[in-house]
């Protein structure tokens, strides 16, 4: 069915909603956002209606309720009542939406997307709500987060442009059109055929991420399968994300992803197209999309994913350029914004604190009380920062030995803890003892045998280091809350660097757009060259009566001359293209300055 699309201005208009269940509540809230005066008629009301600025009429529907209404919604759970509402509305020439059987009304409402004053509605023309919802989700994924602010800016620019005399007005409007297209991922015609599909810590629980994470030996088979759906493919798989980047896509990328993993995953998947896919890759490489903001490992993981694709022969000009850009921007974000400078894990915060006390950890000794996972991670960071000697104390000797061997350390019996304490520059307490294991007098006695301070980290719950230790001169005691507070402050500091990072990303996208325009034009020119060579060959063969007078060497010389002419024309056009792009770049850089 072909429907005529309309957008109604319902501000201060009367709207009737018949039915006060979940559907009625949803419709009521929707029309209230449009500024309508709403009357709701129903024998019973959901409690949420009490909070809404509507007129509630607690009784069954009566035909006179439709009088004077601009719009009517039939939302009861009784088909006969909904049919009656739609029938009365039709007789009075009022638009009515029949919620359960839309074909019985004279109005449809599809999936709606709103950003500020911009509203987009989707309809399938038939009763297929899952299609309209999917269309909305695809559209939503392609729209920038700051779209509503940009719409206001573009509106102001258009208002200024139309006041200009011609031809300045036409040029300003064309510039505005190009700006809007760039923001919507439209580099030029056609759209950049570049897509990312994936799941991450925001969209899927750990149980799902574990199920689709790839082992190294699985990559070749997956890449081979995905190449049936795209000319270029790259897979990024980490503990917090599995993403497929594709260029030259044929068919539905979501189906390609599900088919590769052989399981239904659509409810967990996100998809980005064009420049939005490129921006996503760049934000990932920069650490802006990580579970821990600014984490550094992801840059190397993106690089390895690209190298794996190159080794398998599944990347090409688009993916190569996109990934190179993402890596370059990722490095700039880290070096120019300092977004990764502050410690944002408890274990690393402990290391930073230890450095602030000792300055240099080279040659220092660490004593681990307990063998917990966090203690092991903290010890890993300490060891990489220069700690050389490790002493492990634990009630279970086997666990102590395992941890000691991992760090090339030694095991100490639990009853020898106090004898070992004076040797420790850094003490890491990670045990589940129900009482304090190390008291203030123990540390005081240990410090008498030392000439240097002692750094103690109590990450046990409950704590096993007596809090009074912090009052001893030369003893620096920190617990889990102290470290957590440091992490939170550092995360807040990292968050302040995001705008600078986003600016660097936008600069990178601008550079890619410039490259893509050249790349796209070069491809067009090369195709034109090939067509010209074909025409030259046809013309050459059309000269058959003349060619009969020439020997083979002369014929070859004529054909070579024709081909050289087409090559020179193509090369000249490419040089002109590059010159134009260079001049555009100079102008745009000059404007920014």
Give an overview in words:
This protein is 50% helix and 15% strand. By secondary structure, the chain is an alpha/beta fold. The strands form 4 sheets. A 6-stranded parallel β-sheet has the order 14-13-12-15-16-17, sandwiched between helices. A 5-stranded parallel β-sheet has the order 3-2-1-4-5, sandwiched between helices. A 4-stranded antiparallel β-sheet has the order 9-10-8-11, sandwiched between helices. β13, α14 and β14 form a beta-alpha-beta unit. It is flat and about 95 Å long. Mean pLDDT is 83; it is low at 187-191 and 587-593.
* Beta-strand fraction estimate: 5-15%
Tell me the total number of β-strands: 17
Task: Give the fraction of residues assigned to helices.
Answer: 40-55%
Biggest sheet strand line-up:
14-13-12-15-16-17
Low-confidence stretches: 187-191, 587-593
Approximate shape:
flat
Q: How many alpha or pi helices?
A: 20
Major sheet: 6 strands, parallel
- What structural class is derived from the secondary structure elements? alpha/beta
Q: Average the pLDDT over all residues and give the rounded result.
A: 83
């Amino acid at each position: 069915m072909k429907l005529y699309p309309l957008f109604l201005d319902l501000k201060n208009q009367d709207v009737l909603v018949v039915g006060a269940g979940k559907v009625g509540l949803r419709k009521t809230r929707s029309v209230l956002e449009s500024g309508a005066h709403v009357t709701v008629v129903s024998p019973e009301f959901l409690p949420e209606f009490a909070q809404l600025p509507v007129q509630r009429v607690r009784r069954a529907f009566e035909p006179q309720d439709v009088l004077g209404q601009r719009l009517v919604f039939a939302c009861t759970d009784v088909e006969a009542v909904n049919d009656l509402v739609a029938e009365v509305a039709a007789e009075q020439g009022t638009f009515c939406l029949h919620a359960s059987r839309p074909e019985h009304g004279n109005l449809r409402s599809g999936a709606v997307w709103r950003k500020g004053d911009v509203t987009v509605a989707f309809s399938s023309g038939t009763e297929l709500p899952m299609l309209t919802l999917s269309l909305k989700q695809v559209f939503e994924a392609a729209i920038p987060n700051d779209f509503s602010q940009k719409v206001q800016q573009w509106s102001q620019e258009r208002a200024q442009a139309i006041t200009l005399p011609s031809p300045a007005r036409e040029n300003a409007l064309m510039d505005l059109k190009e700006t809007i297209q760039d923001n919507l991922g439209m580099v030029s015609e056609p759209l950049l055929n570049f897509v990312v599909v994936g799941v991450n810590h925001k969209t899927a629980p750990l149980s799902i991420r574990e199920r689709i994470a790839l082992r190294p030996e699985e990559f070749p088979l997956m890449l081979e399968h995905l190449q049936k759906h795209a000319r270029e493919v790259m897979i990024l798989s980490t503990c917090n994300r599995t993403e497929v980047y594709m260029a030259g896509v044929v068919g539905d990328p979501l189906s390609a992803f599900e088919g590769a993993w052989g399981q239904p995953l659509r409810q967990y998947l996100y998809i980005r197209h064009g420049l939005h896919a490129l921006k996503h890759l760049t934000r990932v490489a920069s650490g802006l999309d990580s579970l821990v903001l600014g984490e550094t490992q992801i840059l190397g993981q993106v690089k390895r994913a690209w190298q794996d694709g190159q080794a398998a022969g599944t990347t090409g000009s688009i993916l190569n350029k996109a990934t190179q850009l993402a890596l370059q921007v990722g490095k700039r974000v880290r070096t120019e914004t300092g977004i990764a400078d502050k410690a944002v894990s408890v274990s690393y915060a402990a290391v930073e604190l230890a450095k602030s006390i000792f300055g240099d950890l080279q040659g220092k000794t660490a004593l681990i009380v307990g063998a917990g996972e966090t203690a092991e991670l903290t010890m890993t960071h300490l060891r990489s920062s220069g700690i050389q000697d490790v002493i492990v104390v634990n009630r279970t000797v086997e666990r102590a030995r395992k941890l000691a061997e991992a760090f090339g350390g030694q095991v100490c019996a639990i009853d020898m803890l106090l004898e070992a304490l004076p040797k420790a520059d850094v003490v890491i307490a990670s045990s589940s003892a129900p009482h304090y294991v190390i008291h203030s007098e123990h540390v005081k006695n240990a410090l008498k045998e030392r000439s240097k301070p002692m750094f103690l980290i109590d990450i046990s719950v409950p704590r096993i280091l007596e809090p009074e230790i912090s009052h001893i001169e030369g003893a620096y005691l920190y617990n889990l809350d102290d470290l957590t507070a440091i992490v939170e402050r550092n995360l807040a500091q990292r968050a302040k660097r995001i705008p600078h990072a986003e600016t660097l990303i936008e600069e990178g996208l601008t550079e890619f757009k410039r490259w893509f325009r050249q790349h796209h034009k070069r491809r067009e020119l090369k195709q034109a060259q090939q067509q010209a060579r074909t025409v030259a060959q046809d013309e050459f063969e059309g000269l058959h009566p003349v060619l009969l007078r020439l020997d083979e060497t002369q014929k070859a010389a004529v054909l070579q001359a024709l081909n050289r002419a087409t090559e020179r024309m193509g090369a000249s056009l490419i040089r002109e293209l590059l010159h134009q792009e260079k001049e555009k770049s100079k102008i745009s850089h000059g404007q920014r300055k």
